[in-house]
Design a protein that fits this description.
The chain has one helix at about 1-45; strands spanning about 55-60, 65-75, 80-90, 95-100. It is α+β, with helices and mostly antiparallel strands. A four-stranded antiparallel β-sheet has the order 1-2-3-4. A hairpin with an 8-residue loop joins β1 (about 55-60) and β2 (about 65-75). The radius of gyration is 21 Å and the shape is elongated. The mean pLDDT is about 85.
Length: about 110
């Protein structure tokens, strides 16, 4: 009977450890995906006046599979809304970041 209880306790500890490792791996993937999305958003914000919609799949260091990156640009007069969505990792994690830029339209 005691051996069965020890086996059950061991199973619970092993399950908790596996779940903890999955959570740590997911957090690391989200951190890398967010950093990549932030870099892409900064790149697009640098050229906000001429930015266009884009979709690409790239090989990125730190990810086994290609990373899908989509850029959306909406213009409303001098206000430009920029959004970047990144799908990365296994299983894929989705990260979306957005910002707005007010363009100086005077020469």
């Amino acid at each position: 009977m005691a051996l069965v209880l020890i086996a059950i306790a061991g199973l619970m500890v092993a399950t908790a450890a596996a779940n903890g490792l999955r959570a740590s791996a997911r957090a690391a993937t989200l951190g890398r995906a967010t950093a990549y999305a932030a870099r892409e958003l900064a790149t697009v914000a640098n050229v906000a006046a001429t930015a266009t919609d884009a979709a690409a799949s790239r090989s990125v260091s730190g990810f086994a599979a290609p990373v899908a990156c989509t850029t959306d640009v909406e213009r409303d007069g001098a206000l430009v809304t920029l959004a970047v969505a990144v799908d990365a990792g296994r299983p894929p994690e989705h990260v979306a970041l957005a910002t707005r830029r007010l363009l100086d339209l005077e020469p």
